[in-house]
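Bug report

Summary: structure tokens for Peptidoglycan-N-acetylglucosamine deacetylase differ between web form and batch submission.
Environment: batch mode, default settings.
Steps: 1) Submit the sequence below via batch. 2) Compare with the web form result.

Sequence submitted:
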Amino acid sequence: MKYARRFVAGTLTAGALALSLTGCGNSVDPIERLGRKTATETGTASASPSARPSAAPGASASAGTPADEAYKKWGLTAPLQYAPKPAQKPQLPKAAPGKPVVLDRIPVPATDKVVFLTFDDGAEKDPEFLKMAADLKLPISMFLTDNIASADYSYFEKLRDNGSGSTINNHTLTHPNLRTLPFAAQKKEICGQQDRLEKRFGKRPTAFRPPYGNYNDDTLKAASECGISSVFLWRESMQINDFQYSEGSAFKPGDIILAHFRGPSELKGTTETQMTTRMLQHIQQQGYKIARLEDYV
């Protein structure tokens, strides 16, 4: 799917004014602005390792099992670390009346080194990535665009049902820049995809990501009227080999990571599994655990 390349100016943090992140397109060129910084810097929450008595997603019960060896199969030098479900969800910023909360970072304690994996669009449907996500039990929050993903929605259903706790969420019908559309057209894009996803997957999502991270008051009002309670932006965008950061050059606790369902034609010959391996390696190198986004909101 070809998208117009456009950097849209928005209200950014001082550290991000000069930075655009590669977003929902089929190139690694910067075509999508950084998700707007929100009020998630404040607030704390406690997480209890004992909240989930069973093994965390991807963790094996004993050494030497197939799950224990999965990390080696996919190019990692150590097992992934998964955060347990928190005993109490963080206190999120209050949303304006009639609007969903907007988050690019989950307000966890500064000592809680967790990040969240999100994948957008749905253009690439690599069967090897299905195996990788299932082997590693990656908890992925998927934000799907109908005219891109619907050619094979069963692919994303398999990702959802692989035991990792992955979810399917709304990313509009046709991936427009919502800020350029009137309220009625924005609502059609969001509610229309709500209807499609509910019909196909049996559940109406409550999470939404606006294409390019672009939204305005009409977007939030429309999303709320369509049943959306949370709008998710991001703090880091995964490129072919490394991340683009909204600020600095490292994760911060609670960061939401943006990645895409992309293949070699968009990644200069790199496969989606190779890109994901590099992403996971960077997460490991910085000492972070992977958490399931829906456990925290």
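Above is the batch result. After comparison, the two runs are identical; trailing whitespace caused the diff. The first helix runs from residue 66 to 73. The chain has one domain: 22-48+67-295.
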